Amino acid sequence: MVKPGSIYKITVRNFVTYTYAEMLPGPNLNMLIGPNGTGKSTIVAAIILGLGGNPKTVGRGTKISEYVKHNCDEAYIEIQLQGHQNGEFIFIGRSFDTRDKTTWKLNNKKVSFKEVESTIQQFNIQVDNLCQFLPQDRVQDFAKMNKQQLLQQTQIAICRNDLIEKQLNLIKVRERHKDLQVSVDKYGQKLQELQDANIRIEGKVRSLNKKKKYLRTIEDVNRKVAWLKYEDTRNTMDTIKTDKTQAIAVFNKYKDAAKPIENAISNARKTIGNIEQRITNKNREVRLNEGFVQNKLDKYKNMKSSITRVLGDLNSKLREIEQRNQDIAQTTEKINELKRKKSQILEVHGDDAQRKEKIEKFNQNLKTLTSNINKLTEKRGDIDNAKRNKAYELRCFESELQDLENVRQQRLEGLRRIDKDAYEAVLWLRDNKHLFKGEVFEPMMLEINVLNPQHAMFVESVIPTRDKVAFTCVLKEDMNLLIRMLRDQKKLRVNIVHSGNEPPHLQSFQPAIPIEQLRKYGLFAYTRSLITAPEPILKYLCKTHRIHNIPVGDHTTNKHYENIPQQVTVFFSDKYRFTTSYSKYTRQKSLRQVEIKADGSLSISINTERMENIRSQLIDVKNDCRKYDEELHTLRMQITNFNEKQQATREHLREIQKCKQEIEGINSRIRVDTGKLEQLQRNTTTREELQHECDEQLRGIVDKMVLCQSEIKDAYMQYSKILDEAELDRTNLSTARKQVTFLENKSQDVRRLRGEAEERLNRIKQLYTNATNQAKEALSKAKQLSNNCTPEDDGFNEFRAAYDNLPDNIEELQAEKDHILSKIDCLNTADMGELQEYEERQDQIAKLQVDIQKGNKELDGINSNMDRLQNEWFEPLQEVVGEINKRFSAAFKRMGCAGEVSVSKGENEKDFSEYGLSIKVKYRDAEPLQELNTVVQSGGERAVATAAFMLSLQELTPVPFRCVDEINQGMDANNERRIFELLVDSTRQSDTSQYFFITPKLVPNLKFDQTMNIHIVHNGPFIPTQEQWNRIKLTNRTVAAS
């Protein structure tokens, strides 16, 4: 039965490579086969664009004008769809030109695109859904879809718009729930902050109210104190006024008594002046007489000093004579002592000849020791030089080894740039290798070492990136453990391969043709010989990529590539990679030449042989250094022994030299002391001569002293007379001064009393003035505190009660005020700004509490609604995915593999936007189920999974047709056959959708079914036109030929 909406006929004109073409597909499987470039995928493009699809969906261009045939102005596509009734057809036409202008027709009538789109949607045709339309250039996009995109496209593909709408509604409700939850949390946080802020100052606010009450009481106290002080000031002012009158009378009394006393003092001072003049004249005469007497006394004193000096000189000279005699005796004794010491030294050390002989003997010994030390020192220097050379050689080796080891770090940095997940996995593995039973190798790009960096591009071209970053396990259980740790727990997208330790072993992988037989074509080595790596990795590369059978050549290979033996299917020249294949039908040879593009992942090579050589040489050099250290230690001991002997010899020489110097010193001191003795003995002055000379000098001095004493006596008599006269005048002066002093004291007493009276008067005046001012100020202050009223005014009544209740004693009032102030000081009060903020926060707290209550109520409603919507959406979704999984698993089981399709909920079950469709596959028994992605599986494996998934949707999807373009590219023969048989079995059912399967090639001996239609596309310049084509004639010709 033909499904409504299936394609009955496709017609194109001036479309891509077609000038004109028609296609009549069957209701079941339609296979379009033909060589590449003939226009198979163009038919798919015509279906997509003819049914309203966007050029981007095709994947070959972005503008519709790009699908107009070259040198044509306009193209036309017509799709004839099966209607709801047998014999009913719907014609959809699309004309477009090079200016991107499109015209739509529906049943040969011009219409808008909306009408066409409405007609298409009636049949659930979805040209932008990769689960229904999978063009050639979008096959890779299917595997690149994440879980969320895959779930969305699956729901669209099975035409479950109700599920899509429910999921979108759930996502909106969840977003509303998250937004509302964030708002409620923010309100709660803000509420807590406001409450905490008010709690912190609540005590301050209470204290502030108490403070206001205390301050009002203090105002009452200050008012009462002000009026009491005013009354006290008025009373004080009256008292001061009486004192002022009395002070004026006393001042006038003392002012009149001072004048007679001042006149008597003036007369007495004149008498004192005359007496003082006479005393001055007498004093001048006394000073003159004193000067004369003093001069004579000084002369007499000098004469006495002369006598003392003469006697002192005599005693001094006598002491010099005594000292000279002592010096002569001491010098004589000293000379004798030096001579005795010299004799003792000569007895011990001998004379000059004996000392000279000893010195020569010691010098000879010293010379021999020095020669021995120099020889040993020179030998030590030679060894030191040799050791330094070895140390330099050691540093060079260590530096070179460090440089070689730094290459590993560079390779690791390269891995981080290429694949961060693999880099993090390497760091984890290095810390956790103890978890594994067998060997687990880091990514191959870290383990493989290219012997010659220039050959790295060949190896990089052979090994795909997914294997370069793949970890290699020898044991299967280690591989499974590593997958669980890295992919499942750490969520790292890494590739892991299994090498195994079972046969075949590495030695069994030998080239099909010895390299010697290929050298004439410029091929000089196989890829296997260009690298070194751990044996499990080499085994995997040989088994998987056959590196032992891929030869590498130079520029000569570019001339002989056509002559390479057919056993070599892949080989390299200096710049190109050649791949040879043979048709399974005609065995015709096909050669593909691609320029080599290196990614640099293996260009950094490690010279392992050089590293081992350096490590061996390092051991030898370190042994040499230890040998040199032992020889140096022996030489140092010998040199130390000779140095000690040399030091002892030098000590003997220094002792002899010291003896010689000591004798020379003794001879020098004897000469000096002998000269000193001769000089002392030359002075012959006697004591008697000195005594006679002194007596003569004393007689002359005594005669002069007698004459000077007579002159001093006459001067003293005149001096005594003048002193008596001066004493009389001083007595009269003292009497006159006493009289003046008496009068001045009396006058001073009167002036003092007058001053005291005047000072008291001024003080009382100032007190009166101050009291008057204080009274005015007190009155002003009291009125200011009482609203400009006095206690007698009616305006004072508002203060009357508090005023009368307070005591009339200022001290008691002040004590009460101090008590209240101490209470205020003990209060921790808020200021007015804090009080205002407190009240504002109280209002905000009340509002927030209402908002939070409303929000929580709304959240409860949303949660209930969300749970209901989740059940309505997820339960039917689980049923649909379960059906898909059932068919997908069965399809993989038929192929000898395993597959699973399930709903992935993500980390948060309520995050409905993260719900996705998880496709897991396993192609080998040793592997666990792994997510389908572009990293783990190869292109062929992804194509198999894509085909199986789309076929699993077949019976669940009410779409009229499906289209898959070249999905079998990259599959091996077994997988291609399995997919084809699966496709045939799925599409031959009577209720199946129409299916278009496009491929450029097929493996031989495939299963055939009568429901299949095979369309051979063989477009080209020598093919007959549509009008010239006669299928009946061709059939008859074929029968006749048979």
UniProtKB/TrEMBL annotation:
Family the UniProt entry places it in: Belongs to the SMC family. SMC5 subfamily.
Listed GO CC annotations: nucleus; Smc5-Smc6 complex
GO biological process: double-strand break repair via homologous recombination
Name the record gives this protein: Structural maintenance of chromosomes protein 5
Keywords of the record: Coiled coil
Listed SUPFAM superfamilies: P-loop containing nucleoside triphosphate hydrolases
Ranges in a coiled coil: 177-211, 311-379, 611-645, 743-872
Residue span, RecF/RecN/SMC N-terminal domain: 7-1015
Single GO MF annotation: single-stranded DNA binding
Pfam families xref list: SMC_N
Natural source organism: Ignelater luminosus
